[in-house]
Amino acid sequence: MRNRLVRAAAPAAAAAVLLAMCAGCSGGGDGEGTVTRGTLTGELTGSGATFPDPLFQEWMSYYSESIETRVSIDYHAVGSGGGIEQFLSDTVDFGSSERYLQESELTVAGDVRGCAAVQFPVVFGAVVIALNDDALDGLILTSEVIARVYDRQITHYDDPAIAALNPGMELPHEEIVPVHRSDGSGTTYVFTRYLTTEVGFWAEEYAEGTDIDWHADTLGGEGNEGVARGVTENPGGLGYVNQSYALSAGLATARVVNEDGVPIEPTLAATTAASEEAEIPDDFQFTIDDIGGDGYPITGANWIFAYECGYDDETAALLRDFWTWALEDTQADRFAAELGYAPMGRDLKERVIREIARVNSR
């Protein structure tokens, strides 16, 4: 199904529109964040995706300093693969990933504690193509060209395939240095899922996943930070990162041609609209594919994993309260918008909050 998106003209305008949309669905009361309660105690430990780490750190710091001041929440950005592994090995209270748990992993999770896993999305974001050269900001790329760059069929910026997409841009005869994630990564899953659904040879030779057998002539970096560093430190660098990392590093980004043949700049509004158009089933196992209209085509979500049983009462109460706060409070939405993430709309938030209530319900 084609996803139709509406996009604001600039990131600042998009954030303002998004916060206005979310104002009626938050539980912050006065719109400036929940009043300090101090009713809970305890500690939480989580691990997983680097994709939401800047936002999670803001959420967790604000919550423990301004909402529940007697709690501590520690999140380790080890990558989606590590987050799934640590969750399934029961070494953390919650896991995080940019892909949902597959059926085989849900089976393993059920064996860990003798009850079902609970998984739910908390935020959406774009995976952008970051570029080393500011002069290339706005470079137009297609899924086919991106796939051929990472397969090393296209090795220079002035390749005819890129030049044909950018007739008004002076392209350097500079070698492209493709940078990818070297760790198990949900960002890699979103990126390769996009290429797999769009490019036939990629689906046959690489496919989708958190770990990919990359071409030998590409450069690896650990975490979004490692990829961003690989892009900035190598002339000709090109890599895929979460939008917030590109923004914080001030990286040039490419426009990507979507399903309708429109080159789209990655913006917050485009990501938000994609999340609204996605068909999300009751089990929250979904992908965002075939985006057309004004929508940016490489969009993904972040999931949180917990269990229906096995927590002590203090930990369970803190788990439920923190993630409910993150979805209900206007300050939490404001942090997301400022950092380039897309909070969820009212209806989806209500569904997710009902799912959070399953944590330790058995």
Your description of this structure?
The protein has 362 residues and is an alpha/beta fold. The chain folds into two domains: 11-19 and 42-124 and 301-356, D-Maltodextrin-Binding Protein, domain 2, CATH 3.40.190; 126-277, D-Maltodextrin-Binding Protein, domain 2 (3-Layer(aba) Sandwich), CATH 3.40.190.10. It is 40% helix and 18% strand. It has 14 helices and twelve strands. It has helices spanning 11-23, 53-67, 80-88, 103-113, 143-150, 160-165, 186-198, 200-205, 223-233, 243-249, 268-277, 313-328, 330-339, 346-356, and strands at residues 42-48, 71-77, 94-97, 117-131, 140-141, 177-181, 219-221, 237-242, 252-253, 255-257, 263-264, 299-307. The strands form two sheets. Strands 1, 2, 3, 4, 6, 7, 8, 9 and 12 form a nine-stranded mixed beta sheet that branches. A three-stranded mixed beta sheet has the order 5-10-11. The chain is elongated and about 60 Å long. It starts with 10 loop residues before the first helix and ends in a 6-residue tail after the last helix.
Give the amount of beta strand, in percent: 15-25%
Instruction: Measure the end-to-end span.
Output: 37 Å
Kindly provide the radius of gyration, computed on alpha-carbon positions and rounded to a whole number of angstroms: 20 Å
Going by CATH, the architecture of the largest domain would be 3-Layer(aba) Sandwich
The counted number of beta strands is 12
Q: What is the arithmetic mean of pLDDT?
A: 89
Overall, the morphology is: elongated
Q: How many helices in DSSP terms?
A: 14
CATH hierarchy, class of the largest domain: Alpha Beta
Biggest pleated sheet: 9 strands, mixed
| Helix and strand composition category | alpha/beta
Question: What low-confidence regions span 5 or more consecutive residues with pLDDT below 50?
Answer: 1-17, 19-33
How many discrete domains? 2
Helical coverage, percent range: 40-55%
> From N to C, what is the helix and strand string?
HEHEHEHEEHHEHHEHEHEEEHEHHH
The CATH superfamily label of the largest domain reads Periplasmic binding protein-like II
CATH topology of the largest domain: D-Maltodextrin-Binding Protein, domain 2
